[in-house]
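Trying the structure run again after the queue cleared.
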Amino acid sequence: MERDAGGPQEHPRWQAMAAPEPSGWPVGRLLSAAARRVERDWNAHLASWDLNHASQPVLVILLRGPRTQAELAAACDVTEQTMSRVLARLERSGYVTRTAHATDRRKHQISATDAGRAAVLAASDPVAAEAMVTEGLTEEQVDQLRALLLLVARR
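Done. Tokens:
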């Protein structure tokens, strides 16, 4: 089969998008690649406490007090099924407990244990998290990055 010489494979923009060097990538691909790198680095940091990017925010929310699985799922913008898996891992680690709900026997209250509170406070150092993401950037660049990400996130 003969290739169309004028097809998209020959366009310089397609070549740049497919290149291993990211300077020609579209903004969406760059943002996705950057987010994956940050997530990998953050997960590696959190692994010292047997946490990850999904479980850490749950413990942060539970610092304010017990919640139901549905409340946690809504707060984290995930399904209840996904939250169930996150909570099972936290429970195995000894970071949360489930107790009967005071008024609804079909529900459980999820609470952080002392070990869970200690782990999330140690793991969630905002200085370490910020340094991980902004390493090599000037203060002005960090401010610009924050402003641009806020614009994208608020769309």
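The helical segments are 12-18, 27-46, 55-62, 69-76, 80-92, 114-123, 126-134, 139-153. Worth checking whether this holds up in the mutant runs.
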